[in-house]
Backbone:
């Protein structure tokens, strides 16, 4: 968390760390009577808590796991197992009391503990703290520690392999800081001395492998404990002039206990016994041999004597090519001092323009070790010569500066020097962090030093005041050197080239903070810094965690030298083992809880199933609530654990701050929800920039935060909509994107809209969401002034209102997106979720489509989307038929209520419910209102097509017959179409129609007879026609009179006149029997392929022979009674043209009464059937032979000669002989023609006959001559062949 410049802000759940209680009330004294006893140190290992007190006692607590019946988040309990008084010296200064237990150093790998009490070191066995090494006497010691942190890190990581020489062999090497030197001792079965280092008065140390950073009361130094070299670094306080510059001029010093010469150069250092070469890498034999941490010859009998042992044998000299480290101190450390007070709270950058904390010297002037700017042995002589040559110039310059300073005002007197406690931590295997300052109450600085003695260019840490104690946590997200962009992102996530976890430095301190009406009150707290980021990176700021409330049960007692009113300082340290800490707040946030929309979830009684579900959720999230920490702190009589604040709690705290931009009127009343959109959007942007989650807890936590953030953005949209504000497209799109990314249960969004809340389906289990999200929703739903305004507008349905512009498009797209997830098994409570989505989306689209024009949907319209929704199917794809049926029934209700019958039929089609589809269409066609109007035009044809696609025979029969009654032509196609999935035999179709649609039987028979040429149904069709016609003639004399009048009228017409068939078609009357007679004539005059029982028909027509003349003509023709047929044509009808056509067609009925084009009723529309019928007709109408035609024309001539009217007789006979004379024999005609007739009557016939005779004679002559020529040609060919073959002699015998 980055804080803006200014006073540090107090943080809680948004801070990087949380404080958790370990032991509430530590019994600091056995009898409870002693006062002024305080906790001095704490350690923890393997469920054992060791607490040292100022009363020189160690309290041993044992961790008792919580009872399973207490719940998953029950806290563990520490019980006091023993109270130990370590051996210590009772002598103390006259002005001070004994310090008590100063250090507890646990060595888990060898099950030993080192306890420093009143400057006396004793050894114990773990875990019960029984005395160890009985033969050893207590040792006077200043400080103990220096365990290799690399080995400890490997042990914590579970790596059993030694990571350094210090962990090789048996035992653990520690550093005992005596008054005059540091002694390295290997603790194993027995303590064994390794070596002594010439560094007295050590108060703090941290070691990495062979390098240790140590401090006395005034300055820091970097040691190589194997090569026994020292680099003086810088002082602890900038006011300490003696420690401002190293005594040896900042060069490497030998601390082996022999000749303490100064290594002036790399070559001289390599020639010194026990020294190391600059940049040299110690060989394994050198680092692990007798002079290193290997098996030395010293025994445990004399390692604690006050005398000094002789230094180890000198190391063999190595060539310069093997140089590894140069211990010449950098110039920056030869000049650096502790920082002056600073008002800036930002990290100081490590760039070229950074000034040194004490002298103001730019870091650009500080050469790194091994850089060209640093003097080396090869250039030492030239450098000394240059220095000597410039002494005179420097002296004159100094005199001029003194003269200039005399004119300036005098500087303020320097502050008095106050010793500061040194602090050393190693946050990284290659770095040490050291603190410097001026006074305890003034700002301090943390400087990073690497193993070469150089400042780390990453920058420094600035503390608000000089720390009382510091710890480092986390390996740090340092960049990989091979990466191209080794930096940390603004969100704190790993960037390319970075690895590990965030690195923090935690400093316990006291600060003067204004508050509670007291100016400058001292408060305890910790300052939290990120150490693994540069000053330019976001996240490099610091956090102030106010812990003044810790240890409040004990009255503050001022320590010696402190001013009155200052509380005892906090203690903080890193223990050797991790402690498991439970953070129940995570369970409260992430555990799923039931959301009740009808009432408050907390007051509604819970059923057994709900209680069981909550327990299961608590059991699941309990795994996510457990964290480990090695940082403990103490205040007063209590011990606490400092645990990293989980990511979900930090982000949720930011969302809590963004829930409302105003505070509540009452401290107890919850704030009204009025989200700060900018803060929420920024948090979502930070989450997007993070690396993908690596753990289950991170995944669930980020999912929860995204959902809560998206709900807050949607709530902001609702609040602004209720206020009548039309939001910008950017805000609407950002909200929609957040909802999509967060994957919030759509029922939550629907529940926030009263217009759609009715469509929420909670299901049998209810709606289960995270506890933190449920609390937010319940609070928002109680804001009735906002929620109740979010309804569909009434009246004109104005689409420009804020609700339609802000909410409706967003919800429409969001619900549509969720519909695409239907069938995804990973959706919790999927049936209820998708049932709610379908019903809500359908209701929303129906509302939007209410104002659309009537008619079919157009592309891109709301109606098209509505159709797509119902076509895609509503309901749920699950095994629960009840859920599916309920959802489907709800959608049907919505459509029925909106009177959208056609859309309802499409919904039924999506379920393949053919009967309901057809029933809905029948309701529309019968006139029931349909608001959409999509089915009015062409509804009959669509129903007919749909009937051809279904397989239910009973349904087809029912609705096909209904369609046949409504539209016989279309209804017949349902039963006669060969492409339908349900095939009907003609007999079955006729039976169904006779029973349910008698009026359509005729249409079916016509289609079968004319369209499909099925002659076996001709008798039925003819019988149907005869029943209609004959029945009418028998019932009504008017019909018979009408027919007779048509004959008289037609006979009265003078030639040229139309045929009788054309005459009655042109003068048809609108009577059913009349049209039935026309179709009867058509059927009777059809091709011979359609056969029927002629004898039966003649028997039925015989009583009405005078009225049904054309019918009798056709029937006589079919029975080859041509003379009778011609007689009726010429004498009964006087239809001479039809009589001539009859002869030309050979007496066939089709030729006699061929219906003109367009007058014959066509078969039901079927292109294949029509084509087939035309082909069959063409095949049946074959022309008769000439002999047949001649015979018929001879009979017709006789009938013409018998006509009663002389004029007709002469005219028709003359025309017949003239037009068709070729079919007559001249002799027969002359014999039949009366002799009294004028030659003019037959003149045309005679002329044509004579021409024909002359032509035939000429043709015969030509044929005769051609035959002669052919005979001569054949004779010539025979002669030539005989001559060519010659004579042939045949002998007999």
Residues:
């Amino acid at each position: 968390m980055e804080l803006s410049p200014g006073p540090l802000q107090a943080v809680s759940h948004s801070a990087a760390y949380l404080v958790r209680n370990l032991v509430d009330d530590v019994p600091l004294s056995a009898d409870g009577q002693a006062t002024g006893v305080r906790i001095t140190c704490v350690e923890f290992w393997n469920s054992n808590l060791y607490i040292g007190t100022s009363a020189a006692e160690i309290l041993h607590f044992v961790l008792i796991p919580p009872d399973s019946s207490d719940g998953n988040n029950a806290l563990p309990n520490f019980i006091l197992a023993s109270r130990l008084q370590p051996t210590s010296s009772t002598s103390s200064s006259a002005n001070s009391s004994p310090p008590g237990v100063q250090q507890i150093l646990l060595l888990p790998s060898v099950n030993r503990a080192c306890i420093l009490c009143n400057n006396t070191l004793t050894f114990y066995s773990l875990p019960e703290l029984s005395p160890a090494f009985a033969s050893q006497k207590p040792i006077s010691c200043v400080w103990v520690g220096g365990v290799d942190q690399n080995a400890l890190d490997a042990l914590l990581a579970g790596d059993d392999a030694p990571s350094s020489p210090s962990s090789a062999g048996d035992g653990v090497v520690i550093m005992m800081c005596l008054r005059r030197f540091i002694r390295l001792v290997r603790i194993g079965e027995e303590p064994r001395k390794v070596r002594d280092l010439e560094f007295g008065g050590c108060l703090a140390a941290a070691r990495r492998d062979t390098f240790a950073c140590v401090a006395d009361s005034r300055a820091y130094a970097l040691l190589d404990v194997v090569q026994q070299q020292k680099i003086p670094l810088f002082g602890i306080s900038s006011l300490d002039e003696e420690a401002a510059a190293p005594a040896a001029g900042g060069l490497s010093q030998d601390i082996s206990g022999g000749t303490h010469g100064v290594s002036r150069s790399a070559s001289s250092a390599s020639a010194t016994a026990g020294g190391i070469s600059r940049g040299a890498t110690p060989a394994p034999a050198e680092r692990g041999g007798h002079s290193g941490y290997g098996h030395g010859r010293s025994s445990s009998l004399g390692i604690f004597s006050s005398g000094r042992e002789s230094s180890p044998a000198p190391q063999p000299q190595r060539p310069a090519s093997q140089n590894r480290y140069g211990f010449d101190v950098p110039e920056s450390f030869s000049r650096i001092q502790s920082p002056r007070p600073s008002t800036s709270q930002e990290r100081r950058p490590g760039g070229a323009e950074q000034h040194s904390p004490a002298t103001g010297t730019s870091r650009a002037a500080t050469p790194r070790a091994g850089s060209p700017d640093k003097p080396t042995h090869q250039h030492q002589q030239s450098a000394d010569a240059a220095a000597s040559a410039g002494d005179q110039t420097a002296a004159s310059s100094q005199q001029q500066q003194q003269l200039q300073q005399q004119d300036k005002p005098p500087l303020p007197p320097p502050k008095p020097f106050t010793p500061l406690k040194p602090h050393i931590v190693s946050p990284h295997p290659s770095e040490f962090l050291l603190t410097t300052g001026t006074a305890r109450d003034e700002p301090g600085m943390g400087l990073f030093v690497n193993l070469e003695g150089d400042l780390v260019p990453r920058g420094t840490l600035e503390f608000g005041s000089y720390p009382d104690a510091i710890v480092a946590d986390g390996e740090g997200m340092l960049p990989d050197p091979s990466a191209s962009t080794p930096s940390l992102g603004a969100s704190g996530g790993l960037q390319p080239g970075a690895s590990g976890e965030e690195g923090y430095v935690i400093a316990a301190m006291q600060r003067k903070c204004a508050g509670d009406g007291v100016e400058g009150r001292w408060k305890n707290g910790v300052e939290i810094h990120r150490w693994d980021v540069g000053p330019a990176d976001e996240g490099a700021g610091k956090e102030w965690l106010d812990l003044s409330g810790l240890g409040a049960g004990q009255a503050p007692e001022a320590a010696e030298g402190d001013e009155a009113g200052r509380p005892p300082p906090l203690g903080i340290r890193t223990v050797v083992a991790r402690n498991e800490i439970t953070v129940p707040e995570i369970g409260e946030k992430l555990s799923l809880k039931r959301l009740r929309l009808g009432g408050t979830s907390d007051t509604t009684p819970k059923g057994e199933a709900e209680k069981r579900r909550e327990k299961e959720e608590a059991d699941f999230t309990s795994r996510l609530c457990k964290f480990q920490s090695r940082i403990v702190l103490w205040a007063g009589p209590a011990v606490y654990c400092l645990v990293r604040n989980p990511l979900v709690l930090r982000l949720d705290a930011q969302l809590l701050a963004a829930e409302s931009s105003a505070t509540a009127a009452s401290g107890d009343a919850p704030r009204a929800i009025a989200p700060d959109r900018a803060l929420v959007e920024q948090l979502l942007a930070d989450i997007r920039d993070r690396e993908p989650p690596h753990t289950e807890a991170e995944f669930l936590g980020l999912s929860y935060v995204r959902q809560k953030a998206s709900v807050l953005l949607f709530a902001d949209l609702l609040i602004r909509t209720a206020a009548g504000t039309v939001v910008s497209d950017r805000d609407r799109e950002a909200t929609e994107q957040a909802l999509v990314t967060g994957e919030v249960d759509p029922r939550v969004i629907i529940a926030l809209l009263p217009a759609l809340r009715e469509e929420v389906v909670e299901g049998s289990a209810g709606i289960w969401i995270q506890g933190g999200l449920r609390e937010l929703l319940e609070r928002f739903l109680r804001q009735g002034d906002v929620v109740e305004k979010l309804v569909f507008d009434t009246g004109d349905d104005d689409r420009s209102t804020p609700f339609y512009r802000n909410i409706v498009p967003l919800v429409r797209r969001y619900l549509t997106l969720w519909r695409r997830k239907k069938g995804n098994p990973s959706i919790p409570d999927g049936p209820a979720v998708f049932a709610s989505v379908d019903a809500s989306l359908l209701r929303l689209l129906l509302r939007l489509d209410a104002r659309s024009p009537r008619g079919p949907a157009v592309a891109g319209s709301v109606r098209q989307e509505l159709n797509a929704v119902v076509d895609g199917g509503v309901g749920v794809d699950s095994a629960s038929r009840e859920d599916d049926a309920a959802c489907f029934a709800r959608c049907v209700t919505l459509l029925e209520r909106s009177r959208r019958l056609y859309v309802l039929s499409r919904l039924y089609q999506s379920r393949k419910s053919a009967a309901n589809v057809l029933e809905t269409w029948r309701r529309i066609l019968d006139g029931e209102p349909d608001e959409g109007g999509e089915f009015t035009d062409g509804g009959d044809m669509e129903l007919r097509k749909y009937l051809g696609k279904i397989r239910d025979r009973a349904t087809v029969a029912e609705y096909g017959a209904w369609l046949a009654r409504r539209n016989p032509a279309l209804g017949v196609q349902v039963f006669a179409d060969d492409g339908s999935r349900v095939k009907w035999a003609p007999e079955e179709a006729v039976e169904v129609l006779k029973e349910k649609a008698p009026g359509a039987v005729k249409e079916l028979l016509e289609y079968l007879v004319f369209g499909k040429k099925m002659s076996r149904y001709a008798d039925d069709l003819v019988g149907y026609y005869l029943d209609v016609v004959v029945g009418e003639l028998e019932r009504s004399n008017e019909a018979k009179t009408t027919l007779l009048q048509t004959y008289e009228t037609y006979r009265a017409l003078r030639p040229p006149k139309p045929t009788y068939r054309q005459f009655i078609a042109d003068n048809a009357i609108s009577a059913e029997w009349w049209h039935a007679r026309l179709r009867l004539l058509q059927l009777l005059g059809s091709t011979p392929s359609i056969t029927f029982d002629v004898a039966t028909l003649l028997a039925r027509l015989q009583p009405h022979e005078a009225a049904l003349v054309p019918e009798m003509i056709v029937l006589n023709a079919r029975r080859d009674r041509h003379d009778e047929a011609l007689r009726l044509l010429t004498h009964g009808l006087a239809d001479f043209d039809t009589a001539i056509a009859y002869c030309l067609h050979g007496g066939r009925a089709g030729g006699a009464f061929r219906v003109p084009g367009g007058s014959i009723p066509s078969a039901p529309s079927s292109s294949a059937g029509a084509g087939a019928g035309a082909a069959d007709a063409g095949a049946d109408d074959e022309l008769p032979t000439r002999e047949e035609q001649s015979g018929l024309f001879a009979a017709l001539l006789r009938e013409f000669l018998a006509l009663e009217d002389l004029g007709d007789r002469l005219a028709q006979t003359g025309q017949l002989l003239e037009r068709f004379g070729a079919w007559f024999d001249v002799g027969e005609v002359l014999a039949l023609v009366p002799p009294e007739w004028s030659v003019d009557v037959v003149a045309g016939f005679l002329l044509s006959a004579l021409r024909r005779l002359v032509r035939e004679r000429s043709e015969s002559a030509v044929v005769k001559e051609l035959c002669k020529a052919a005979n001569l040609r054949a004779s010539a060919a025979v002669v030539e062949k005989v001559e060519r073959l010659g004579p042939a002699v045949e002998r007999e015998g």
